[in-house]
Amino acid sequence: MQFRLEKRQEPSQLMVYATPVAAVLLTMIVGAIIFSLIGYDGIGAVREIFLTPLTNSYKWQDLGIKAAPLIIIGVGLSIAYRANVWNIGAEGQYVMGGLAGTWVALATYGMTGPWILPLMILAGVVGGALYAAIPAFFKVRLNVNEILTSLMLTYASVQLIYYLIRAPWKDPMGMGFPQTRLFSEAARLPTVIPGTIVHLGVPIAILVAFVAWFIMSRSVFGYQMKVVGAAPHAARYGGFSESKTIWLAMLVSGGLAGLAGILEVAGPFQRMVPGFPTNYGFTAIIVAFLGRLNPLGVIFAGVVMAITFVGGEVAQTTIGLPNAATGIFQAMVLFFLLAGDILVRYRLRRVSSIPASGAA
Amino acid sequence: MDITIAIFITLVGAATPILIAALGELVVEKAGVLNLGVEGMMLVGAIAGFAAQFYTGNPYLALLAGAFAGAATSMIFGFLTLSLSANQTATGLALTIFGTGFSALAGAPFSARPIELMRPLFPAELATHPMWRVLFGYSAPVYFSFFMVFAIWYFLKKTRAGLILRAVGENDLSAHSIGYSVKGVRYAAVMFGGAMAGIAGACFPLLLTPQWAERMTAGRGWIAVALVVFASWKPFRLLAGAYLFGLVMTMELYAKAGGGPLSIIPSELWAALPYLATIVVLVLISLRRDASTNAPACLGKPFLPSN
């Protein structure tokens, strides 16, 4: 008995939504097996990483604040990837957003007023967008691969943090620690549920996803992004400019990464520290794909990835699983998702032993 | 005099892993496949090489372990992109995320347990004079990298197998219709690229810092990918490019060590320089008129013969 792949007339809508769920389930099963084989408590690892964050209500706040940046960045990346613009440097744009906002917070240190926080957020968005403008410029003008430039800028941005908090922005009272001073009250992100750590970033993330979904599905902008990504030739006939699309895709995804950066620095961190780059920008790549490049799907995917982050920390303390295991589970989700993609475009057909002729 | 030689030897050490990884990626791309997982495969190779050196103390076994680990990791990419026609860009990224996590997990027990650096290939008597050290003072991977530059150039230009590989990368449908196995050639190329990335990764603990550190390849895999573009897919230009980057990284090391005029510039800027230089180089290369004409025509596109 043999199986053959047969191209579907239309991509299967069922498979589009079923494969992300299947990818997560398969990751749990295969992950349990692999981690058992290499000498860890595999079932325990899967339980702690995927289930404990959901069943333990104390962890829900953590889920919210970890999902927020992933969703915000993931929404931006899903728009860019739709347009076939491969912004891989969201981590760097996140850092630059955080730095730009920190600059405002330090410049207004000691001041009060409701304008400070909006100004920081604006600076964050602009910072992220400007950093993404560099690969956009080189891509549009000189056709330089945006994957490599945006990624290289990420490595450079991390060095910029180290420099700023070591020298010009260093907390004078920080006892030598390389970090900025704690932001003043007006520069900190308020919590939305009293008595929790759930900050304003969480509702902002959900708002961003819904607005993006509305724009992508209802506006000319959204249509342009999708057409240029899916059928560049047709887009050219239709009068959609490819350069304009690249610019928009980069600026939007960079701006959103910058937004996530400033929300993170004004929320959980409240100062700039060397540990600020937390890989959200890279994990958001998985989030964008797992969410099927659909802003509403990204909410689901962001929560799933947040679960693995929170669960990874749980597993570290309860069963002594190294933190790096989280990255392996996250990569496995993406592997299974990409493997499952073939079922969107093809169906499995059983064939008789006589090979079908004229297939080529 | 002595400082010049010392700088040169540091330069060779910095350039070698990038060169080896980039040579592997060059062959992969010549076959029409874009594997962005070089960084991940290097990290897996690095921890495999480290562990092998830790347990056996035999650096050649360590290099071999790195090659096997890199090749095995590349087969995840090969299966997804070649057998299941998954998106190559996304799969390459996933491979890097996986390699980063895997190496960190596997490396955790080895932290703060140093290994022995690989010794020079030639007996020390040959390298007593400083001038001779420049020629004979290196360990085997350095000579291997030079040999591979020539070997890959020869393979691609002068052999029938190399011609088939290029044909698969330039026009997969034609190669298929003549009867060559596009998938087979690409699998072989991807595996070769993985083995080279694995060896390159193993060079980090064996040649540079004899301790395990998470993400110890620090983006060098990505620089290797960029170098292939810079070199217009030509092995000898890759050699020049890798040494150019080696020079930038060597300046960083000397600046950090407090070396005179170099230390006026903040050390963080030196650390960022290889990445910024990569961007500059990519921009400069794109200014040339024939910039992308040398790219394999099928690069990054899935092979779908039934359409």
User: For this entry, what is the oligomeric state of its chains?
Assistant: heterodimer
State the share of residues found in helices of chain B, binned by percent.
over 70%
Q: Given the C-alpha coordinates, what overall shape of chain B results?
A: globular
- The counted number of beta strands of chain A is 2
Contiguous uncertain segments of 5+ residues of chain B: none
Task: Write down the domain tally of chain A.
Answer: 1
In sequence order, what are the helices and strands of chain B, one letter per element?
HHHHHHHHHHHH
Strand order of the largest sheet of chain A: 1-2
Q: What order do the SSEs of chain A take from the amino end to the carboxyl end, as H and E?
A: EHHHHHHHHHHHHHHE
Give the helix tally of chain A: 14
Using the coordinates above, name the CATH class of chain A. Mainly Alpha
Task: Report the C-alpha radius of gyration of chain A, rounded.
Answer: 22 Å
Beta-strand share of residues of chain B: under 5%
Q: What's the architecture of chain B in CATH terms?
A: Orthogonal Bundle
Secondary-structure class of chain B: mainly alpha
Report the sheet with the most strands of chain A, covering strand number, pairing sense and barrel closure.
2 strands, antiparallel
Can you tell me about this structure?
- The complex is a heterodimer of chains A (360) and B (307).
- In chain A, 69% of the residues lie in helices and 3% in strands.
- Chain A has helices at 13-37, 42-55, 60-82, 90-107, 116-142, 146-166, 201-218, 220-230, 232-237, 242-269, 280-290, 295-318, 324-340, 342-345, and strands at 2-7, 346-351.
- The radius of gyration of chain A is 22 Å and the shape is globular.
- Chain B is mainly alpha-helical and 307 residues long.
- Chain B has a single domain, classed as ABC transporter involved in vitamin B12 uptake, BtuC (Orthogonal Bundle).
- Helices cover 71% and strands 0% of the residues of chain B.
- Chain B contains 12 helices and no strands.
- Chain B starts with a helix and ends in a 20-residue tail after the last helix.
- Classes of the chains: A mainly alpha (360), B mainly alpha (307).
- The interface between A and B is large, with 45 and 51 residues.
